[in-house]
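Materials and Methods. Structural model of TraR/DksA family transcriptional regulator. The 107-residue sequence of TraR/DksA family transcriptional regulator from Alteraurantiacibacter aquimixticola was retrieved and submitted for structure prediction as follows.
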Amino acid sequence: MADLAKAKELLDSQLAEMKARLEHIESDLAEPMDADSSERAAQMEDDESLEGQAAVVSRRITATQRALLRVEDGSYGECLECGADISEGRLNARPESVLCIACAQKG
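The predicted structure was written out as tokens:
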């Protein structure tokens, strides 16, 4: 079974970092476009990339928040597919993991 206090600390830290990253991305996206058409084209391309990054960060925030809920209800570290314990190494690498390695490789 996972060390829940350590997991919560790691997840809280990860969540704060991702929220700050998302805030920075949203701030960059809110900047007005340049009047120069060639600069505007480059900015639009950059904005598309930032929007993609924001979507990825948002999904990770949601996954991390769900992991924190599992810490609270005592189910953190249990595979949602087979019910086995998720290895400590996997949880250290991806604390928001919901599947053990065997189940993750199936899907």
